[in-house]
């Protein structure tokens, strides 16, 4: 079920003739809604790292592929401008990133993304990528693992977990989700004084941290944001349609911070330190914020789709008089 679907459509305002990019195609839920709202001739370029997701959408939305309204590309949204240029796609009226993983990916045992299903400790969205979670868990030194668990998972027992992983992998390499989950659970039980802080499974934070590290999620997002902005139409004569809008749904506070800081900075004219008498940086705003506060799912949506609970949507619009 696509997260914050109504809100995304309300902000992107898809319309006939418009061009849109969905940088995280997934199961194609948001893309389908954009195509429906931009009938009869709006077009979407759908990108995903995961070739299996692209195959499923190519079948499910084959009518749009056949009519040329839906273009599909396998790739990383960190290469957005290159992918769009290869398809001669842009400037665009809207770009969406709905970060993270789809429910199908999370529940697929072959992907090893979840501690609730036994599978190989893989976690790669892009099967061509060389580094898997097992490589990281078995090869990284304990300090590096502890940093990953602490930084990306905010795991308070990061050091104790990394130390136990170090001991366990000397016995035999850690290659499955279940074994890692057991090691993490045992490390936390030994380190914790008193009952658990919250109701979540003890391995939740470590698995989340590993997924972020293996797929370089924060780095990809940082690279994608300026490219999204560059691809947005300014809505000036000679460019198709109204000014373009960029929308990002984040599920993790570190991702949301990156999006918030980027949009705020690009919505600001001068970035000189406070009390600088005359601007020397020459920075000019290129965006207008449409969501001063992030948009969150309604209680009804969270009830119907608990995965949406931590979603935060931020949207900004390209300024017509902004530098190209
Ligand atoms: C939450 S799902 C998107 C769901 C989609 N909006 C829908 O309605 O079905 C996120 C998708 O983004 C993809 N993805 C994650 N990181 C990516 C990246 N750096 N580049 C391209 N796709 C990525 C994942 O493979 C996954 O299919």
What report would you give on this structure?
- This protein is of the alpha/beta class and 324 residues long.
- 43% of the residues lie in helices and 11% in strands.
- The chain folds into two domains: 202 residues, Rossmann fold (3-Layer(aba) Sandwich); 95 residues, Orthogonal Bundle (DNA polymerase, domain 1), CATH 1.10.150.
- It is built from 14 helices and seven strands.
- It has a seven-stranded mixed β-sheet with strand order 3-2-1-4-5-7-6, sandwiched between helices.
- Strand 1, helix 2 and strand 2 form a beta-alpha-beta unit.
- The longest helix is centred in the middle third of the chain and has 15 residues.
- The model has no long low-confidence stretch (mean pLDDT 94).
- The structure holds S-adenosylmethionine.
- S-adenosylmethionine binds next to helix 2 and strand 2.
Kindly estimate the percentage of residues that lie in beta strands according to DSSP.
5-15%
Helical residue percent?
40-55%
Care to count the β-strands? 7
Overall structural domain count: 2
Low-confidence stretches: none
| C-alpha-based Rg, rounded | 21 Å
Query: What is the makeup of the main sheet?
Result: 7 strands, mixed
Ligands and ions found: S-adenosylmethionine
Strand order of the largest sheet: 3-2-1-4-5-7-6
Shape, per Cα inertia axes: globular
- Rounded mean pLDDT is 94
CATH topology annotation of the largest domain: Rossmann fold
Structural class: alpha/beta
CATH superfamily of the largest domain: Vaccinia Virus protein VP39
Number of helices: 14
CATH architecture assignment name of the largest domain: 3-Layer(aba) Sandwich
Cα end-to-end separation: 36 Å
Order of helices and strands: HEHEHHEHEHHHHHHHEHEHE
């Amino acid at each position: 079920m696509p997260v914050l679907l109504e809100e995304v459509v309300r902000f992107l305002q898809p319309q006939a003739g418009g061009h849109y990019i969905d940088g995280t195609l997934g199961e194609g839920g948001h893309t389908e809604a954009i195509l429906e709202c931009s009938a009869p001739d709006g077009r979407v370029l759908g990108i995903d790292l995961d070739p299996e997701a692209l195959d499923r959408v190519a079948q499910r939305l084959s009518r749009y592929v056949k009519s040329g309204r839906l273009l599909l590309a396998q790739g990383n949204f960190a290469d957005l401008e290159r992918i769009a240029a290869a398809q001669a796609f842009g400037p665009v009226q809207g770009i969406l990133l709905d970060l993270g993983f789809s429910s199908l990916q999370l529940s697929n045992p072959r992907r090893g993304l979840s501690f609730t299903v036994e599978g190989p400790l893989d976690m790669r969205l892009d099967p061509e990528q060389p580094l898997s979670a097992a490589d990281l868990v078995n090869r990284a030194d304990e300090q590096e693992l502890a940093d990953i668990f602490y930084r990306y998972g905010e795991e308070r027992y990061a050091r104790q977990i990394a130390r136990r992983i170090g001991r366990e992998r000397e016995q035999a390499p850690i290659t499955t989700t279940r074994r890692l989950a057991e090691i993490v659970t045992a490390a936390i039980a030994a380190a914790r004084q008193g009952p658990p802080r919250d109701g979540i499974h003890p391995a939740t934070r470590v698995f989340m941290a590993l997924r972020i590290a293996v797929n370089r999620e924060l780095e990809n997002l940082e690279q994608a944001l300026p490219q999204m902005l560059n691809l947005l139409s300014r809505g000036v004569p000679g460019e198709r349609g109204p000014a373009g809008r960029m929308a990002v749904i984040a599920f993790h506070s570190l991702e949301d911070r990156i999006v918030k800081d980027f949009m705020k900075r690009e919505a600001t004219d001068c970035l000189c330190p406070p009390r600088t008498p005359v601007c020397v940086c020459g920075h000019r705003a290129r965006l207008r914020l449409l969501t001063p506060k992030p948009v969150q799912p309604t209680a009804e949506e969270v009830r119907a789709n608990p995965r949406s609970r931590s979603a935060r949507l931020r949207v900004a619009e390209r300024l017509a008089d902004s530098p190209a």
